[in-house]
Amino acid sequence: MKTALTAIGTLALGASQALAGGIERAPQSLAILFEEGNYAELSFGGASPKIEGRDIMGVATGDVASGYGFFGLAYKHQFNDNLSGAFIVEQPFGADIRYPDGPPAGSGSPVVGGTLVSIDSVSYTALLRYKFENNFSVHGGLRGSRASGNVSLRGAGYANSAGYDLDIDGTWGLGWVAGVAYEIPDIAARVSLTYNSPIDHDFGMTESGGLLAATGQGTVHGKHEVRTPRSWTLEGQTGVAEDTLVFGSIRWVKWSEFVVENAHFPINPDRFPVPPGTDVPLVELQDTTTYTLGVGRKFTENWSGSASFVYEPSEGRHSSPLAPHNGRKGVTLAAIYTRDNMKITTGINYSKLGDARLGVGQRGDDNKNHVGDMDKGYVWGVGVRVGYSF
């Protein structure tokens, strides 16, 4: 019973993460470390978002968000009673936003119409966990991340920078993970705190168009450092009655350190001028805090289920057109079927995305130029995990 209840909390905390703050798509959870014995897991699923609004000219943007799929692999090995290790493959960050560029009478937006961003990433995490005799444990390891992407800025909202294109080569970065946990096995209770370090990527960038073309520079190649954000995750669960579990988490991500700036410009190097001479990053996001609370229940020897609620408050006055939502509220339903050593977990999530006031301009939330408002946003997400203990 305690093993089944632990699995309920593990699934729900992961399934609720579709289209989280910034460009996060996976929670970077280390829950596999707490599985019993040796354990292997395959996860896959998809998300179908819809984000719509109007620009400052009153023209409908149409749906700017594209659906996406995801996968994950994980393996946990129990070396002895105290020491275990795990290897996790997942896709933590991603974005696929495109503003239609049709005529004003249609679905396009003349203010940011044609603007797009595409970001893909995959991470590989190697971990060790040591469990002390007093129910405390420590865990930590290394995380390697590979990311790539491209950005195109179009429309009058980007002023002199409209027409700018940026291609970011796939590049590796390395970070680390550390945490501590405390368990009371008799009541399926556990609380854990995990820190994920920022990861610096020294990207190769190819820039063209916009002010580069206007000044006769053509296509420019160079290197530029981009940092994916650090985070803290507090997770907890406990049995509250026979066959019943309460679980939750608090996750804070420092998105403000994920700042993308262009690598070259003759007037003001390492900045993206809009208009020329001002200090404007290409992508700038707000820090986020995400809260999850849920309850799980074992119904039979083979079937368990859970329901959970996720809340992410809006942060800041403006959102980037490249991440056009601000906060969310969502519900996740999950079911687990267990038979012998096999465990099949399925979850579905619906989240209402918070309205976003889109801003382009100088660094800092109060210095943005208002270019539009997104007031119709939601996302459906589904996920399946197949696990095997041995």
Could you walk me through the main structural features you see in this protein, from its secondary elements to its overall organization?
The protein is mainly β. It has one domain (2-389): Beta Barrel (Porin). Helices cover 5% and strands 55% of the residues. It has 2 helices and 18 strands. The longest helix has 14 residues, at 2-15. The chain is globular and about 70 Å long.
Keywords:
14-stranded antiparallel β-barrel; globular; single chain; Porin; 390 residues; mainly beta
Question: Which value, in Å, is the CA radius of gyration?
Answer: 22 Å
Looking at CATH, which topology would you report?
Porin
CATH superfamily: Outer membrane protein transport protein (OMPP1/FadL/TodX)
Provide the number of structural domains. 1
The CATH architecture category equals Beta Barrel
Summing up helix and strand content along with how strands pair, one would put the structural category as mainly beta
Overall mean pLDDT stands at: 84
The major β-sheet equals: 14 strands, antiparallel, barrel
Shape: globular
Distance between the termini: 18 Å
- Find the count of extended strands (DSSP E, 2+ residues): 18
Strand-residue proportion: over 45%
In short:
Helix content is 5%, strand content 55%. It is mainly beta and 390 residues long.
What topology emerges from the helices and strands here?
Layout (H helix, E strand, L loop, with lengths): L1 H14 L23 E17 L12 E11 L4 E8 L4 E4 L17 E16 L4 E17 L12 E20 L4 E8 L2 E10 L2 H4 L5 E9 L2 E11 L2 E10 L34 E11 L4 E10 L15 E12 L2 E12 L2 E6 L6 E22 L1
Antiparallel strand pairs: 1-2, 1-18, 2-3, 3-5, 4-5, 5-6, 6-7, 7-8, 7-9, 8-11, 9-10, 11-12, 12-13, 13-14, 14-15, 15-16, 16-18, 17-18
